[in-house]
């Protein structure tokens, strides 16, 4: 028994790191996502519209490396479908920081103007996938009422531009199907 306890204490003190949790960031224990495992956990939570993970985005957004920023922006775009009200709250918070502190590459990437404009990649995915995303997002944003209007206006403008490009035969779609 003494050896079992010793083994347990050795394992517990051996520098084993635990997966990041939203409360670690919300409560100020961590401001930076340190490794790929933590970042993937974070992305999944944001993409799935988990309110706790979404609340962490403004706190960590300026610390996201540029090579990972598109992944977070895309996760926020998908969270609009699953948790539109909470996602709009996050985008509004980031927009306020942009307004107060000015534009910067990290901040701008996660504000409404970028996230609401970025839908699924038209160069990668087919027309059907694009419009399926749009209709899901449109429906979700409409349910938020006035709160989601700005984001929906941005999306609608982009979709009109896509339709125009398509009409002019300038649009080239990808071939993959997006799995929702």
Keywords:
0% strand, mainly alpha, 66% helix, single chain, 10 helices, disordered N terminus, 180 residues
Strand content: under 5%
Helix content: 55-70%
Question: What structural class do helix, strand and pairing data support?
Answer: mainly alpha
Q: Please, how many helices?
A: 10
Report the major sheet: none
The N- to C-terminal Cα distance equals 51 Å
Mean pLDDT score: 84
Number of strands: 0
Rg (C-alpha, Å) = 20 Å
- Quaternary structure type: single chain
What count of domains describes the coordinates?
Answer: 1
Instruction: Pick out the low-confidence regions.
Output: 1-18
Order of helices and strands: HHHHHHHHHH
Q: Outline, from the CA principal axes? A: globular
Write the layout of secondary structure elements.
Elements: H1 2-12, H2 22-26, H3 36-47, H4 51-60, H5 66-82, H6 84-101, H7 105-109, H8 112-115, H9 127-143, H10 149-167
Helix pairs in contact: 3-4, 3-5, 4-6, 5-6, 5-9, 9-10
């Amino acid at each position: 028994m003494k050896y079992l306890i010793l083994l347990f204490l050795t394992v517990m003190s051996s520098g084993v790191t635990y997966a990041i949790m939203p409360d670690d960031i919300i409560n100020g224990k961590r401001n930076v996502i340190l490794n790929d495992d933590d970042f993937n956990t974070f992305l999944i939570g944001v993409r799935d519209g988990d309110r706790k993970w979404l609340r962490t985005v403004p706190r960590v957004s300026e610390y996201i490396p540029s090579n990972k920023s598109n992944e977070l922006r895309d996760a926020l775009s998908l969270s609009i479908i699953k948790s539109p009200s909470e996602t709009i709250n996050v985008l509004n918070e980031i927009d306020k920081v942009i307004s107060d502190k000015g534009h910067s590459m990290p901040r701008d990437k996660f504000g409404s103007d970028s996230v609401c404009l970025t839908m699924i990649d038209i160069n990668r995915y087919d027309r059907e996938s694009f419009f399926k995303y749009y209709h899901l997002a449109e429906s979700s944003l409409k349910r938020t009422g006035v709160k989601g209007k700005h984001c929906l206006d941005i999306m609608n403008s982009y979709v009109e531009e896509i339709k125009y490009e398509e009409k002019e035969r300038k649009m080239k779609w990808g071939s993959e199907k997006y799995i929702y």
